[in-house]
Amino acid sequence: MKDELNIERGVLRWLPSLYFAKGLSQVTVMSLAVILYKQLGLSNAAITFYVAWLYLPWVIKPLWKHIVDHTRSRRWWILLTQLLLGAGFGGIAFTVHAQSWLQGSLLLFWLVAFASATHNEAADHLYRNSGIGKKHHRVELVRQLSQKVAMALGQGVLVMLAGNLQVLYRNNIRYSWSLVFFIVAGIFLMLFLYHLYGRSFEEAPQHQRVGFRRVWEKTKDSWRSFLREPSAAVFILFLLLYRLPEALMGKMTLLFLLDPMQGGGLGLAPQEYGLVMGTVGIIGLSLGGVFGAKVLQRDGVNHWKWWMACAMTVPDLLYVFLSYMLPESLSLISACVCIEQFGYGFGIIFYLHCLGRFTCQSEGSSHRTIAKSIMALSIMIPTMIAGTLQMSWGYRTFFIVVIVLCAVTFWVTSLLPLEGMKMKKNS
User: Fold this and answer.
1) Structure confidence by residue, pLDDT tens digits, 403-417
2) Between the CA of residue 134 and those of 27, 157, 291, what are the distances in Å?
């Protein structure tokens, strides 16, 4: 017991800052990029197409997972990627003013996304090998809370700050966003220095270093063993299609909140968006996740799987309602977003639980990375075409089509053979 407490205290010295960095890098790439390009005048089709490509590093992460695992220590990779993230966001801050701002910012966003995906792999590997399991509820709570705080900062506070700076500097959009990205770059520089010199994590036990040829062989072996798992084909189909409505809706809900009413949107200012999506939405998402984890642990997956599938899909009807009503009441909009995000947070627990049940059966770490790459692909492809569909149909028809496609979520849920996926204890 005393040894476990010492391990827990040691982990809590570095866990909050490490997972704060993980959450902030992801939300900045996946959400702030959408808002930035929207304010700089890109069409919805262009925004979703360009931003979808930022998922590519997560899609192909299994190709370099073993390089991260076997070539350097986790500490080395974390420090390197945090330094690259700071430099990348600083570069975006300068690029916003350049003549070729679109090409330059897209290149830097892609490099930042690559660094973020590598940082995530190193951070997760360090956490998994720290001696802390899910039975350490306080540590797990701190880990999840750190990521939620980062999401609230990135999708809430920073967007509101950009809006306030635009008011202060007479709607100078480029200058305001440049300052915001300089702030993000400064945060990552401070995180780098903290983990380099401050109360940082201990060095993880080193794996035996291997050559790149051996790394490639291990990567191929991981894919072969993954595809040979029982029900692998059905599981891959489930990973690809369960979140199809949410994948189509994901970036479009952000754009819907920001688009002017004459364009079919709600016309929120950045400050209002930050409050609605970055504060109220994060609260709803967090509460949904906590509630979902509690009831799943208490009653089991078979009892809740259909309720969770409903929670992932039915609240999308609120966006149909909003697209018809176009309310000006910020309270009503916030309530709808909160309910929808609560449903998503509740429903995604089933998805993640099934991922855990499948990938813990053998090579958990390698298989988990492959499964997460398929998850990223399931978001990337629908996101790529979502803006084009919305511009062709309008928001109302687009949201109605998404509701029809919710049937796909129920279909793949019915196919999943939960009895055939044996869950290891505390996995």
Assistant:
1) 999 999 999 999 987
2) 25, 31, 16
The CA distance from 245 to 236, in Å, is: 17
User: How many other C-beta atoms are found inside a 10 Å radius of the C-beta of residue 254?
Assistant: 22
Which has the higher per-residue pLDDT, 41 or 133? Answer: 41
Phi, psi angles (nearest 5°) of residue 19: -80, -20
Residue matched to tokens 């809370």: 145
pLDDT value of residue 224 = 81
Q: Is the four-CA dihedral 91, 14, 121, 205 of positive or negative sign?
A: positive
Characterize 48-73 residue by residue with b for buried, 16 or more Cβ atoms within 10 angstroms of its Cβ, and e for exposed.
bbbbbbbbbbbbebbebbbbbbbbbb
Whether 341 and 284 have beta carbons less than 8 Å apart is answered as yes
Structure-block tokens of residue 413: 């849920």
HSE of 1 in the Cβ direction (CA atoms, 13 Å)?
A: 0
Instruction: Please tell me the pTM assigned to this model.
Output: 0.90
d(CA 288, CA 245): 18
Query: What is the DSSP code (8-state) at residue 172?
Result: -
At which residue do the structure tokens 């679109």 appear?
102
